[in-house]
C-alpha cells in the first residue's frame, strides 16, 4: 500500500514541475529571510529570479555543517522564534553541535513523510510499533513517534536502553514493527537469547533500521536472526531527521527519496560538479518545503548513487543506493582507501565471527595502521588456540585479498566489544591522541 498515492507515483515530469515551483519559492524565502544566504547569493551575483529550471540548482551555493556551527544556535533560522515549535540537535563528535528548528507545518510534514516511510516498509494502521530510537534531542525517537501516530499505528515509545525490559515488552505486547539502529537490533536479539526468548517466535515482522551505516550482508544476518524483514531508513537532523529516504518492502533495492520535499543531487566530492544517475558521489540535498531552517544544497558527506528507474512497488520517487559510508569515515591505510562497511561485509561472511566489531586506527611514525577487533562466537571461543590463530589469519588474508590493505586482526571473546543502544562506534581513531 502507498500512503500518499498522488505524490509518490507522480510521472517524473509532474514531480519536477512541483520541485521547480518549490525551489523558486525557496530561493525567494531564504534570500529575504536568512542573511547568510543573501550574502552567499550576492557574492555569486545571483538573484532568486535567476533560477528558472531545475538544472539551475547547480548555480546555487553549497551549505556545509560548518555553516550551521558558525551560526550556532539559531542564526540560520528563516522564521522568528514565535513560529518555532520544536528544536533538535545532533551532537557531532567534533566541534559544536548543530541545532535545527521546526515550525508547526514542518512537524506535520515530517509526520506525513514518516507515515509514508512506515507504509513503504510494509507497516499499516493495524500494526503496533515498538520505537527504540532515542527520544530527546536526537531526531530518531520523536521523528518515528509522530510518523507512527500519523499512520494510525499503536505506538510504543520505549526509547533506547533497558534492553531486557525491551525484550519483555516486545514479547508481552506482541509489537509487529520495531524501529532502532541495526546494531541495537543485534544487541536486542542477543539479550533475548540470554533470557531464553527467540525473537523469531514473536509476532515481530518488520524492522526499520537506520541512523548508522550497515551493509546488505548485515541486513541478511539480522533478517535471519530475528526472522523479520529488515528495512533501511535514512535521514539526517540538518535536513529533517529520519524519513528522507526509505526502502520499500516490495523491492528492498534502494531507498526511495521523498523528492517532493527534497531535491537530491549526487556530486563529485572533490570538484563539486553534479554527477549523473548511476555514478557514485556525495549526496547533496535542498529542502524544498522546510520553513524553520531551509537549507540549500546541503553537503551530507554521505556517499551514494541515484537511480531514477521505475520501481516494482509503483513509486516513481528516485532511489538512492544504501549509504555504506561517509566520506569522513574513509580510512587511508598506507595509501589504500577503506570503508568500515567493506570490513563488515568480510566479517559477516566469515563463519565463526559475530557481527560485533570495532576498528582501531593508530599512527606509528608516518604510517597509519588498522587493527580489526572482532568477536568470535561461543563455539569458536572454546576451540583450540591453533584454530583461533588459523581464523585470524584467514580474515587477515581476505581483507588483504579483497581490499588490498594489510590489517591486524584480533579475535575478541564473546561480549568483548562494547554494545551500544544507539549509533554503534565502529571506529576508534587514536591518530591524533599521541
Ligand atoms: O541519524 C536520523 C535518523 C534517525 C535516521 C533514525 C534514520 C533513523 P543524525 O544523527 O543527524 O540523524 O545523523 C545523520 O547518520 O548523515 C548518515 O551519515 C548516517 N545515517 C543515517 N541513516 C543512515 C542509514 C539521524 N540508513 C547521519 N544508512 C547521516 C547509513 C545513515 N547511514
UniProtKB/TrEMBL annotation:
Catalytic activity: 2-phenylacetate + ATP + CoA = phenylacetyl-CoA + AMP + diphosphate
Residue ranges of domain AMP-dependent ligase C-terminal in the record: 335-431
Domain annotation AMP-dependent synthetase/ligase: ranges: 77-286
Any one GO BP annotation for this protein: phenylacetate catabolic process
EC assignment: 6.2.1.30
Entries under InterPro entries matching the protein: Adenylate-forming_Reductase, AMP-bd_C_sf, AMP-dep_Lig_C, AMP-dep_synth/lig_dom, ANL_N_sf, PA_CoA_ligase
Keyword set, alphabetical order: Ligase, Nucleotide-binding
GO terms of molecular function: nucleotide binding; phenylacetate-CoA ligase activity
Pathway membership, UniProt: Aromatic compound metabolism; phenylacetate degradation
Gene3D superfamilies in the record: 3.30.300.30, N-terminal domain of ligase-like
Enzyme class: ligase
Function: Catalyzes the activation of phenylacetic acid (PA) to phenylacetyl-CoA (PA-CoA).
Oligomeric and partner information: Monomer.
Family recorded in the similarity comment: Belongs to the phenylacetyl-CoA ligase family.
Protein name, as recorded: Phenylacetate-coenzyme A ligase
Provenance organism: Pseudodesulfovibrio senegalensis
Species classification: Bacteria, Pseudomonadati, Thermodesulfobacteriota, Desulfovibrionia, Desulfovibrionales
